[in-house]
Amino acid sequence: MAYFSSVPVFITLFLLNNAVSGATCGIKACPVTKLNMINVHLVPHSHDDVGWLKTVDQYYYGSQNKIQHAGVQYILDTVVEELLKDSKRRFIQVETFFFSKWYAEQNATVQRAVQKLVAEGRLEFAGGAWSMNDEATVHYQSVIDQFNLGLKYLNDIFGDCGRPTIGWQIDPFGHSREMASIFAQMGYNGEFFARMDYVDKKKRLEDQGMEMIWQSSESLKDSHIFTGMLYNHYSAPPGFCFDINCHDAPIIDGESYDNNVDQRVNDFIDYVKTMSKSFRSTHIMVPMGDDFQYEEAAVNYKNMDKLIKYVNDRQSKGSQVNVFYSTPSCYLHELHQLQQTWPNKTEDFFPYSSDSHSYWTGYFTSRPTQKRFHRDGNHFFQTVKQLSVLANLTSTRHSEDLESLSQAMGIMQHHDAVTGTEKQAVARDYDRMLFKAIVDAENNARDALRSLTNLTSGEFESCLELNISVCSFTQNSANNVVVTLVNLLAHTSTQYVRIPVKSDNYIVTDEKGREIPSEVVPVPWQVLAMEHRSNDTQHELVFEATVEKIANFLIRVLPSPKSNVQNLIHFPTEKALDESDELTVENSLVKLTFNTTTGGLKTIEMNGLTETIDQSFGVYKGFRGNNGEAKNRSSGAYVFRPDGGFEKLNNKVGISFYNGTRVKEVHQHVNEWISQVIRVYQGDNRVEFEWLVGPIPTEDEVGKEIVIRFSSNISSKGIFYTDSNGREMLERERNQRDTFNPDMSEAISGNYYPVTGQISLQDDEVRITLLNDRAQGGTSLKDGELELMLHRRLLNDDAFGVGEALNETQYGTGLIARGKVSLIIDEASKKPNHAERLVQHEIDQPFWKFFSKSNRVPSVNKNMIPDFTDFPPLVELLSFEQHSEDHILIRVENFNTNGNVVSFNIYPLFSSLSGYKIWETTLDGNMKLGDMKRYKFNQDGIGSIPSSVEYFYAPHNPMSSDYTMDASEFVVTLVPMQIRTFIIQQKNIVY
Ligand SMILES: *[C@@H]1O[C@H](CO)[C@@H](O)[C@H](O)[C@H]1NC(C)=O
Ligand SMILES: *[C@@H]1O[C@H](CO)[C@@H](O)[C@H](O)[C@H]1NC(C)=O
Ligand SMILES: [Zn+2]
């Protein structure tokens, strides 16, 4: 608990009330501006990475300063001290992880002082999530969760004044439309960032397009949000960095030969005038800060005080520049008041390129196992949250363990964590932290399941290495093992379950004692051959399970062998070329054909369509330069820069065929370090490709990036689709961007986009979709062709700061990664397909498996499972969790992309949770939806500008009902893709 012990779990309400009284935060605290002048909003800030070159604790405490000088605790110490000295000074705090750690260490005097600063709008929170999350490789569920966490903390400590209204995503390497949509749904007024394609930025500087109205969702109305691109990265103007780590001169205003006031004021005014030419209004925002600045805040504030004084003194001589301390929310308030119009933005800001050879598309894939681990973390987090609510676990210990996992997941979303752009030692620390949080939260899952089933002493252990068919619980015999499956979905689900086992003869029975048909499938020898893997489990037991919420299955070893794994047929690799040699793999829904000479896939038939599919693995060789100039940039953790094109790896692959009744698998051996299982399950309308890549060889001193590619005859005309953080799909056009002509010097990496959940393409008849299991880079370089980058091992740093080559090793050799891609071929459809999204959701959150020893099948205490039966088929449960002591948070999401509005009644669920009251909140769960009021801006071309400023309010009448009301007051209506968030306060809580 070293990380999190200090953060209170549930803060009592009176503290909150204390905080709000007499508040003058928000626009009441905004500086007075001047008409007919350039109003310069100086925004003091510090960009504090939640881990990057140092671990989160090293950054917090300021240890390991030889790696990077940075100590966040001192930043907060000194900033607070300096703010207290002058009521005009301002500071914005962004990362709530660091803030909460610091605040918990303060004595009551300091805490009271901080309360005052916040209540008076002198210390303001921007962003406010646990970390400043990445936007390319995160999943929307985790982003929502980490905002929920950060904003809840701020609300508990500071009340309304602690609630941020501005998104501050200044460092992530490109920006997603879904993130903007999430900000809109949380009621934020706008967001700011500092990185976009350099050609796009150049154009926007020229045509005053730096600030715009982003139409952040195709399906949600009222999703327009003000979006501002910063002028000079997120740094102070050149020459005006007053931080102790900078070398710029201070303002010297004394009797001195070195007095530089005139010069500095001239320089600043010149800068401001140049800058303001690129912005539409009479206000400009100038951030004053950078990475880990303000460690001795007195130096910063003393010089900013002087700068403000001397620049404004010039007004008496006719200067039109007015400068003052401000915050992003005050800046945006002024813009909103101006009633100007702003350009539109519809697509997103990917990929980001910073010069003609630097497309930041490598990080979409960097550290593939860490990217997968954080998705496992999310999966388990959701599982434990649901189980804790069902079992009503509210002890301090349980709450703390769940809170730790929540915080670990918040940290993992950081733009140097899930991105894979941190140093190796920091990556290990993230893994350690998340692993520990998962292990601690396993206690919650166990305690919950002990009360939710009648197996009151069950172990309910999780196995975290199922991806390589390892589970300590089943490795010896798997006799009399109970598997408890937990279904996170709102609806009863039927899925195939795979359990690593040792022998090959088992019987599976359900709660009613009925035998469930099962079979045993061999684990590919390439997995068995992994050096560090204990080789006890050579098989996987496969059976089909139908689970409402929780179901138990008993596995027993049969006394005498029933069958052996005799269904496995090997095809010799060396054979005479004979085109007619074909292997057909067929079940009732899907038919695959393979060329047994090359070992490759030929065709896929499903949903009444037959498509030629050539599937291959390929390598891009990483460019190695000396990084001196752009053209010498190496491929690295951030940047994908191939040296030449795709080189196909599998001209001839060895194959074996396992012809089971429920599952059919083709095991392909591509080369010494790539293999794959292609499988189809009976009744499952998709094809699964489970790849195994690594150790990527580097004996030739060449870094390599490995991709999987599917080529079809679909004439996609340069168009393909990728998801935005796992939600809406965006259309991509090869070599094109929506608002500018990109520099395509890097024609391959410049066409890479983040794929968190799916990538697809189509022509008039056929559509092909790939669903992945973690964030990856993906593209379509030719019509009909889809490609995902699976793994990267590089030998050079790309000179964007991490200072290490992305050369992951494990057990003394290159890291091995394993994962899955699912493929669906279906009829073309105009809009993204919701069925695919549901499959994606199911793949993302399959049944979680818990293991116990028992010789009987336990039963589930059904009376503890609430009623989800009224949820329409396309409505999913996005969150189901304890919000505070007697409050449960529920998020429901309509997965329908193009269909009708759906409605259902939430009363049965409310009632089965002993609901007393239910109300609706913004997406983060912390503000009543009825209180939402966010800025509405005018877009170019709207015609006449309204006579007074406008706002967006709740997009519908927010629910607010209690148990005395008629069930008709509990109807939930969801437009396509809508998410609604509810808090249910429970009855019968004794204080
Ligand atoms: C609280 O902490 C501050 C800063 O560390 C210190 O200056 C002050 O003396 C402390 N006050 C009390 C009452 O301990
Ligand atoms: C911007 O979008 C609005 C609303 O979608 C539309 O009315 C307007 O014409 C657009 N303006 C431009 C310049 O595209
Ligand atoms: Zn950063």
Automatic annotation (TrEMBL):
Q: Which residues form the Glycoside hydrolase family 38 central domain?
A: 358-434
State the Pfam families in the record: Alpha-mann_mid, Glyco_hydro_38C, Glyco_hydro_38N
What cofactor is needed? Answer: Zn(2+)
Keyword check for Amino-acid biosynthesis: no
Keywords (A to Z) from UniProt: Disulfide bond, Glycosidase, Hydrolase, Metal-binding, Signal, Zinc
**Where would one find coiled-coil regions in this protein?**
none
* Name of the protein in question: Alpha-mannosidase
Query: What is the scientific name of the source organism?
Result: Drosophila rhopaloa
